[in-house]
């Protein structure tokens, strides 16, 4: 039986997915529009979600040996132009500062669209010997890309992200680092955000400007579109040669270094909304939910004081157990209104305590998934709450994984490919001969692109378009 919709202030997801997303992002206070076109404001709830995402990913990044640093927002034009393919790829999106105060600048400054140029310039100063390698730096910052069409989190003129940059002595070490970070992102998405992903190399047409190879994780959104949720780039020696990153090897020979870069941005918050959200609002994985449990006291008559006392006692015990808990004892809102509000905001667990519960020394735990009620003795609340949160996290991943499986089809006929891409979207796994011509034809005729390459095709596989022997099996999808 379908659940009754408690929240009516957002467009139904089944009616208009795009409007549902925009309504939900604003109504749940994840983001709001700003006076600056294309930029968003992150209110406290939205920023708290991003901080938790950041904390989980930062821990994983540090475990690889990378350390955080910070580099300037402004990049001199001469530095940005040192790697030709890089600047050509970003040219349409770069914002320039040409005046400071009342003076025209001698050299225009780019507002960083990404930091390879400025960081590689510093690496050239820092790296002198094989003993200095590997050098592994991560930066949490904002970047600016002058987008024509924007949507909160998914594509904005300014956004927040982390960008890692590393330098290595050999090509093998750089490739190992690139693949290690791809795996870090895959595990972060699946284990912390409960978002299943496909992962693998991008096509040449989709790779990062200036990279030798780009790898990505790709997730399926609720409307059947794909979202690139993280990228890891093997930069080869391109940037080392452009910026003069050289080192003296063990044989005292001067060598150019090998480098990588990798990043995840605030668009991952948009992915959380679109993968897990339902008709009633957000559904947040417990690991990154700003509030994991909200306590709603049922206040009535003479027992009011006892209920509040019990609610506060439970609050202290849950916080002592390391859980993120809030107590809502406002008088101006009814319990029913609060239930709907916290459901909209995606709080994984609601704890209700009323006069009857106080008398029984118990409370009621209600899951955001399915609204199952659990009557729990007060002494068992912390353990049961933690178990339920772990269960919700696992259920969210399994549900999303099943949707990904159902939203993926193997196709060997181009007419079927076009019909499926038009009607149901999702990921289509098909043979591809690896040619730019076929890739461009698919994009022109369906707007679908190669999201990532699964791997080499079997010997008998044929390209879904040309009929020639397939070089790869690739995931195609329409994407944000």
Descriptors for this entry?
480 residues, BirA Bifunctional Protein, domain 2, Translation Initiation Factor IF3, 7-stranded mixed beta sheet
Structure description:
- By secondary structure, this protein is an alpha+beta fold.
- The protein has three domains: 17-276, BirA Bifunctional Protein, domain 2 (2-Layer Sandwich), CATH 3.30.930.10; 293-388, Anticodon-binding domain (Rossmann fold, 3-Layer(aba) Sandwich), CATH 3.40.50.800; 408-477, Translation Initiation Factor IF3 (2-Layer Sandwich), CATH 3.30.110.30.
- It contains 14 helices and 23 strands.
- The protein has helices spanning 17-27, 44-63, 77-80, 84-90, 116-126, 171-192, 238-243, 267-276, 304-320, 335-344, 355-360, 381-406, 414-423, 436-446, and strands at residues 32-33, 40-41, 67-68, 74-76, 95-100, 103-111, 135-144, 158-168, 198-201, 213-220, 226-236, 246-248, 254-256, 258-265, 293-297, 325-327, 349-353, 362-367, 373-377, 408-411, 427-432, 449-456, 472-477.
- A seven-stranded mixed beta sheet has the order 3-7-8-14-11-10-9, with helices on both faces. It has a five-stranded mixed beta sheet with strand order 16-15-17-18-19, with helices on both faces.
- A hairpin with a 5-residue loop joins strand 12 and strand 13.
- Helix 2 packs across helix 6.
- The longest helix has 26 residues, at 381-406.
- It is globular, with a radius of gyration of 25 Å.
- The model is unreliable at 1-5 (pLDDT under 50).
Content-based structural category: alpha+beta
Helix coverage percent: 25-40%
Largest sheet: 7 strands, mixed
Rg, alpha carbons: 25 Å
Annotation, overall tally of beta strands:
23
**Can you tell me the CATH topology of the largest domain?**
BirA Bifunctional Protein, domain 2
| pLDDT < 50 runs, ≥5 residues | 1-5
CATH architecture descriptor text of the largest domain? 2-Layer Sandwich
The CATH fourth-level homologous superfamily of the largest domain? Bira Bifunctional Protein, Domain 2
What characteristic shape results from the CA principal axes?
Answer: globular
| Number of domain modules | 3
Could you give the order of strands across the largest sheet? 3-7-8-14-11-10-9
Number of helices: 14
Averaged pLDDT: 95
State the CATH class of the largest domain: Alpha Beta
N-to-C span: 32 Å
How much of the sequence lies in strands comes to 25-35%
